[in-house]
Write a structure and sequence with these properties.
33% of the residues lie in helices and 27% in strands. It has helices at 8-17, 39-58, 74-79, 82-85, 102-109, 120-129, 173-178, 180-186, 234-252, 300-309, 335-346, 377-391, 404-413, 424-429, 450-457, and strands at 21-23, 35-37, 63-66, 71-73, 87-92, 99-101, 146-149, 152-155, 165-168, 193-202, 217-227, 260-264, 276-284, 287-296, 315-317, 322-324, 327-334, 347-350, 353-356, 367-371, 396-398, 418-422, 431-436, 442-446. The chain has three domains: 8-73 and 152-347, BirA Bifunctional Protein, domain 2, CATH 3.30.930; 87-149, 2-Layer Sandwich (Herpes Virus-1), CATH 3.30.40.230; 365-457, Anticodon-binding domain (Rossmann fold), CATH 3.40.50.800. The strands form seven sheets. It has a seven-stranded mixed sheet. It has a five-stranded mixed sheet with strand order 21-20-22-23-24, with helices on both faces. With 458 residues, it is α+β, with helices and mostly antiparallel strands. It binds adenosine-5'-triphosphate. The site of adenosine-5'-triphosphate has 16 residues, from strand 11, strand 14, strand 17 and helix 11.
Length: 458
């Protein structure tokens, strides 16, 4: 029997044991909400990243890429509204000093009550009126709810003070708006078109753990898709984006559709400039949570930067000779959340093994090659030849340690779809055994056919 249900502990234990994710700064006692990606984790993360870039930039003729600086001018974040409005509501337990997000505290205690858009006073009132208890010490003795800005300030150079203040970017999106004019002037794009970016963002978040779901630094894949609302119907465009995102997640990443749903933001939850926002949510072991946000943001961002910078960001419509600010639809996803979703969705437990049913396209290693015995040079040499031949075209592992059973267990847990074994028969008939990760079925395949066999399946 295969068990698909999993707990966060099962997934994080496997992730640590097999080198997907390690706790950040571990030998110094750890640094909360930071993580390091190990040898197989980084391969999975890069495969997700590359697939995203390939799908949304390289294979499209209407989207161009960008990589903006992580350290950015303080005025960008003033103009965008982040220095004043980009904050979480924080509350502390006076008894045990636990710090939490007030919205999370309420949602967890009052059965998913939606508190988006409420003021700090309103949140504080709900906590008091319901005598919500601290999940750590059980007391109900809370501070007032306070706003806490998420941006990470950095001081440049040796002069401290306002002049040298910059910010680590809190999202990649602003890079697209501040370079909008540069892209228009240096390329051949015309509306509708998108600018995409894949890279790190930083937020000083209070987080409840849950592995890499919410961390201080994380990677975003964002697209700002610009269009003229008098020429392009935004509702159709929005629906088109929903389809592209759904297809990417279910077909390319291979996630089970039953674990996914779209959730539309209610009016009070939406930013005032957004006409429509929907989140694609995944059913993590800790509940349905946002994976990918899709928002129609009107011309709010470009217009804010026109005001903030004093530079004109309008573009000319050659037909009417009119200068206008385009509107924008923004699909924004966290690459690390896709990573965590892939681990959760692919985790399988059977009586005597655990395996990750990761789509072969994303698997860190596409295949592993073993000599049946490590002390027989004729087997080892033949296995090494096959390994070298495959490695010229894909990520493959070679393993001669321990017995075959142990090697299978290891490869199953890192999601390697095929294991190839060279045995004594191979020396006679030129065939190897290929074992399938998901079914554990074994097949004899000619050495000359091995590469083709694997390529057809990945
Ligand atoms: P949330 O409501 O979960 O805080 P958000 O609505 O603030 O997310 P956006 O600003 O829309 O998130 O960012 C786009 C995407 O970036 C999110 O859908 C999510 O996948 C990812 N993301 C945001 N914050 C984090 C974080 N602290 N750690 C990891 N990923 C994140």
């Amino acid at each position: 029997m295969t068990k698909t249900s999993k707990s966060m502990q099962d997934v994080t234990a496997l992730a640590k044991r097999r080198g997907f994710i390690y706790p950040g700064s571990e030998i110094y006692g750890g640094l909360a909400n930071t993580h390091d990606y190990g040898p197989v984790g980084i391969e999975l993360l890069r495969n997700i990243r590359n697939l995203w870039w390939d799908n949304f930039v390289q294979r499209r003729d209407d989207i161009v890429g960008l990589e903006a600086s992580l350290i950015s001018h303080q005025e960008i974040w003033k103009a965008s509204g982040h220095t004043s409005g980009f904050s979480d509501a924080q509350i502390d337990c006076k008894n045990c000093k636990l710090r939490m997000r007030a919205d999370h505290l309420i949602e967890e205690n009052l059965d998913g009550k939606n508190v988006e858009g409420l003021t700090v006073e309103e949140l504080g009132k709900i906590v008091k009126e319901n005598s919500i208890k601290c999940p750590n010490c059980g007391k109900s003795d809370w501070t007032d709810v306070r706003k806490f800005n998420l941006l990470f300030p950095v001081n440049l150079g040796i002069i401290e003070g306002d002049q040298s203040l910059a910010y680590l970017r809190g999202e990649t999106a602003q890079g697209m708006f501040i370079n909008f004019k540069n892209v228009i002037e240096s390329t051949r794009v015309k509306l509708p078109f998108g600018i995409a970016q894949l890279g790190k963002s930083f937020r000083n978040e209070i987080t409840p753990g849950n592995s890499v779901f919410r961390t201080l630094e994380f990677e975003q894949g964002e697209i700002e898709y610009f269009f003229d609302p008098t020429e392009t119907n935004w509702e159709e465009l929005f629906e088109g984006w929903k389809k592209s995102i759904w297809e990417f997640i279910t077909v390319k990443i291979g996630i089970n559709e039953e674990n996914l749903r779209w959730r539309e933001h209610e009016e009070k939850e939406r930013s005032f400039y957004s006409k429509k926002t929907e989140d694609l949510e995944y059913n993590f072991p800790f509940g349905f949570k946002e994976l990918w946000g899709l928002a129609y943001r009107t011309d709010y961002d470009l217009s804010a930067h026109e005001k903030g910078s004093g530079k004109e960001l309008r573009i000319n419509n050659p037909q009417t000779n009119e200068k206008k600010l385009p509107h924008v639809i923004e699909p924004a996803v966290g690459i690390n959340r896709i990573f965590l979703m892939v681990l959760c969705d692919s985790y399988r437990e059977e009586e005597n093994r655990i395996f990750l049913k990761i789509s072969p396209k994303l698997a860190p290693y596409k295949a592993a090659v073993f000599p049946l015995l490590s002390n027989k040079p004729e087997l080892v040499d033949r296995a090494k030849e096959i390994y070298a031949d495959l490695r010229s075209e894909m990520m493959v592992a070679f393993d001669s340690r321990g017995n075959i059973g142990k090697r299978y267990l290891y490869q199953d847990e890192i999601g390697t779809p095929f294991c190839i074994t060279v045995d004594f028969d191979t020396l006679e008939d030129g065939m190897v055994t290929i074992r399938d990760r998901d079914t554990t079925k074994q097949e004899r395949v000619k050495i000359s056919e091995v590469k083709k066999y694997i390529k057809e399946k990945i």
